[in-house]
Specification:
The complex is a heterodimer of chains A (about 220) and B (about 475).
Chain A: H1 4-19, H2 25-35, H3 38-69, H4 72-93, H5 107-121, H6 128-146, H7 153-191, H8 194-199, H9 203-220
Helix pairs in contact in A: 1-7, 2-3, 2-7, 3-5, 3-6, 3-7, 4-9, 6-7
Chain B: H1 14-18, E1 25-32, E2 41-46, E3 57-62, E4 74-75, E5 95-99, E6 106-110, E7 119-124, H2 126-133, E8 135-144, E9 147-155, E10 165-169, E11 176-179, E12 193-196, E13 201-204, H3 210-213, H4 219-223, E14 230-235, E15 240-246, E16 251-259, E17 267-275, E18 281-289, E19 292-301, E20 304-305, H5 313-316, E21 320-321, E22 325-330, E23 336-341, E24 346-351, E25 359-365, E26 389-391, E27 397-401, H6 406-412, E28 420-426, E29 432-441, E30 446-453
Antiparallel strand pairs in B: 1-2, 1-30, 2-3, 4-5, 5-6, 6-7, 8-9, 9-10, 10-11, 12-13, 13-14, 14-15, 16-17, 17-18, 18-19, 20-21, 22-23, 23-24, 24-25, 26-27, 27-28, 28-29
Classes of the chains: A mainly alpha (about 220), B mainly beta (about 475).
């Protein structure tokens, strides 16, 4: 069984992603202001959360595939390299955006936008260390539940990974959705946009620091 | 260069920008006409009424080359950096991007270390612009969702022809990123560019290709209705041409675009400089009409009869002074439209609360081809007339200069424009009055053109929130 702290960390990362204005709550607020109603804020939240989850899902699937064919010794150093490399890249190139979606967008556009933003920021990659600790145990657990059986092993292990991976995506998305809903509605209803001028700290720096810090932490952990 | 919190001169909404502290400095493009050996310059003007240097130039940044014809310029970053779909709020409003309209050279000027004494940190050469974007004669620029957007009048071939269009500059490295258009449709002539961020729509207007304008206003082309008269509407994000509106052949020189600042509003204003039938100028309103954009003329400003002996050769036959509305500006609350009548020497102020029914509420006369109206603090008659106009963020102060474009200046003011910059006070009720303490006479040879105010002004920023 995966340890509780891993799930808490997953929820924490969901909250961290959700609180970043660039990940979507601000877009929902803008659409609410454009239409002058709270309903527009709420309507924008599901596609934003979905796009974010899809980006994370791509990472989970990719990691699962890599894990199935890669020697365990290589997984950790490769993960460390990816995290620190992306963090460094975001430090240098954090301010650039190719705009593909505008203010007159709908469900599909918001989903696409959120997917692109999460992917460009490496939202899914940030949970790689947790995947390291959650997917392999899930495979073992699935195998142990079904007992020995050589011809079934690969399928059962993959099923264990898929179930754990799906749980990871859903838990992360739910945490992110709750946070963007709370922050978006509070800003829309009471706080107002003045908060952007002082309260919008440089999440690009925090984010890059989180990526590098996670990679470094993973490197130092036994 | 990235900061920890957003640049304090970025505002989510025009309403918040109006509460900003007043500007203390103004930057002015200064065209040199005195000697071919002296370059154009960027002037820094003290606009702090409490300062002993109020209304005077406190420093001058000379360009590295001669012959640029500095014209319109703007900031590398502004309030649009707070937009939710392309946020980059931790860049700084720090660099002025100063193009030479004639040379196609673009200067990157850093104002951070000492805003009163800015420095050039990079120059984009015309060859780089042509190689990267296939354009020349950069004209108008705006800080926007993907970087710095610049309109250009000519192609990069060096033949003075079109098409002109829009290109992008990276707002951090200042590399030319390339041509903006993916599908330009029938667009060929270029001039101004701006947008409705809330409508995902870019708008462009038309002047002429470099070979149509650089030697002066060509009467044959004008009477043949060959100058720009169309307005183009684009999909801002897909970079595709969507719609053209033709004002009709008699409306020549469709120039400045001033969209409403409130992103929930879908209208804006444009000036057509001259009507071939009666030399009048006109102001047009664009607005949404169902799924399309529509335009209608909302203001006509007639020519004024004049003694031919007092008119320059280009106008003698008409026995009238055209108003020549060459610039307009819209206050941040979208309520007041300022209209520069460069020919008659009048600055007009309209209440456009109802954009379909504007009301003239104020007027000041300074200079003019025949009027030569005087300023209370200046000796003698003035020539030139209200031209590039800029309104402060809070809407209380209006600044303008009196030079248009060198070869055109010489046609309408053949004696040579003696250049000045003035400031008006705009009352909340709609009146306009001259600030007698503020009359800036440029040195002989220099002519003032566009003005940018420290921290942004009414034509520098775009907003994504109402």
């Amino acid at each position: 069984m995966s340890e509780a702290w891993q799930w808490l960390a997953l929820i924490g990362l969901g909250a961290f992603h959700g609180v970043n204005p660039a990940m979507g709550w601000l877009f929902a607020v803008a659409l609410g202001l454009q239409e002058g109603r709270r309903g527009a804020v709420i309507k924008a939240l599901p596609p934003i959360a979905l796009g974010h989850a899809l980006s994370v899902l791509v990472v989970v699937i990719s990691f699962t595939m890599v894990q199935l064919v890669t020697a365990p010794d290589l997984l950790k150093p490769a993960t460390v390299a990816v995290l620190i490399g992306l963090g460094g890249y975001r430090l240098v190139r954090g301010q650039r955006h190719r705009v593909r979606v505008g203010m007159r967008t709908g469900f599909a556009g918001l989903t696409l936008w959120s997917f692109l933003m999460a992917s460009a920021h490496g939202a899914g990659l940030m949970i790689l260390p947790l995947l390291l600790g959650m997917l392999a145990p899930a495979q073992l657990m699935a195998l142990s539940l079904c007992g020995p059986g050589a011809e079934m092993t690969g399928t059962i292990a993959a099923f264990g990974s898929a179930a754990a991976g799906l749980a990871v995506v859903l838990v992360h998305m739910t945490a992110m959705l709750v946070v963007i809903a709370i922050v978006g509605l509070v800003v829309f209803e009471t706080v107002g946009l003045g908060i952007l001028r002082r309260g919008w700290v440089n999440f690009d720096l925090v984010w890059a620091g989180a990526l590098i810090g996670t990679g470094t932490g993973l490197l130092l952990l036994r | 260069m990235a900061t920890w919190t957003p640049d304090p001169s970025f505002y989510p909404s025009p309403r918040m920008a109006m509460q900003a502290p007043p500007e203390r400095l103004a930057y002015v493009a200064m065209l040199n006409t005195d000697t071919s050996a002296r370059p154009d310059a960027l002037g820094v003007v003290d606009v702090d009424p409490g300062s002993s240097g109020y209304g005077r130039i406190i420093s001058r940044l000379d360009m590295p080359n001669v012959g640029d014809e500095l014209h319109h310029f703007g900031w590398n970053a502004c309030s649009s950096a707070l937009c939710p779909y392309a946020p980059h709020p931790h860049v700084e409003r720090r660099y002025l991007i100063v193009p030479g309209l004639r040379s196609s050279r673009i200067h990157i000027v850093d104002t951070k270390a000492d805003p009163a004494h800015p420095k050039i940190v990079k120059v984009i050469e015309p060859e780089q612009l042509a190689a990267r974007a296939n354009y020349s004669r950069p004209h108008t620029l705006h800080c926007g969702p993907e970087g710095i957007y610049v309109s250009a009048l000519g192609n990069g071939g060096g033949n003075g022809g079109g098409p002109g269009g829009v290109f992008l500059i990276d707002h951090e490295t200042f590399d030319v990123l390339g041509q903006w258009e993916i599908d330009r449709g029938p667009q060929f002539l270029s001039y101004d560019v701006w947008w409705h961020l809330g409508q995902d729509t870019m708008i462009t207007s038309e002047w002429g290709t470099p070979d149509m304008i650089e030697d002066g206003l060509n009467p044959e082309l004008l009477l043949g209705a060959k100058y720009g008269r169309r307005v183009h509407f684009w999909d801002l994000h897909r970079r595709r041409h969507r719609q053209t509106i033709d004002l009709g052949p008699e409306y020549q020189l469709a120039l400045e675009l001033r969209p409403a600042h409130d992103p929930t509003k879908a209208h804006g204003f444009m000036n057509a400089v001259v009507n071939l039938k009666d030399l009048s100028s006109s102001i047009w309103l664009w607005h949404r009409d169902g799924g399309q954009w529509a335009m209608r003329k909302i203001i006509d400003i007639p020519a004024e009869p004049a003694d031919p002996d007092r008119l320059p050769p280009i106008l003698k036959g008409f026995k009238a002074v055209p108003p020549l509305v060459t610039d307009i500006d819209l206050s941040l609350d979208d309520r007041w439209l300022y209209v520069s009548c460069w020919g008659t020497g009048e600055m007009q102020r309209y209440d456009v609360s109802d954009p379909f029914r504007p009301k003239l509420t104020g007027s000041v006369r300074l200079g003019g081809i025949v009027g030569r109206s005087r300023h209370p603090s200046a000796e003698g008659d003035l020539n030139g007339g209200p031209q590039m106009v800029e309104v402060s963020r809070d809407g209380k102060r209006v600044y303008f200069t009196n030079s248009l474009y060198r070869s055109w200046d010489d046609q309408f003011y053949p004696e040579g424009i003696k250049s000045w910059m003035v400031k008006l006070d705009a009352s909340p009720e709609g009146g306009l009055s001259i600030d007698e303490r503020f009359f800036l006479r440029f040195d002989d040879g220099f002519r003032g053109h566009q003005i940018r105010l420290e921290g942004g002004d009414a034509s520098s920023d775009s907003y994504c929130y109402p």
